[in-house]
Structure prediction request, 110 residues.
Amino acid sequence: MKPIAHLYKSQVYQLAKYLGVPAEIRRRMPTTDTYSLAQSQEEFYFALPYREMDLCLYGLDHAIPAKKVACATGLSERQVGLVWRDIAAKRKVAHYLHLPPQMVEEITAS
Prediction:
């Protein structure tokens, strides 16, 4: 079960604030503890911080023109296009992670 999988990262932080999660926890840098780099995980994986990534992702998901997304993020239209291309490539590679469970046989209710 993934009750918040549909939310953007910035929405998860907003929800945490609404639910009263302490600021010390909300401010902590997200990490999988896989890499020990001077940059954050999002900067390593997406090459930009979550705020800009969320805006680019939202724009892509809602067919908002790159020019508008560029204005909102402070990126150029070209950079937004590159981010969208990167998102598409990552989605293609990881599409199987979003598939429903595969069953060997049909489960029937008793």
About this structure: The radius of gyration is 17 Å.
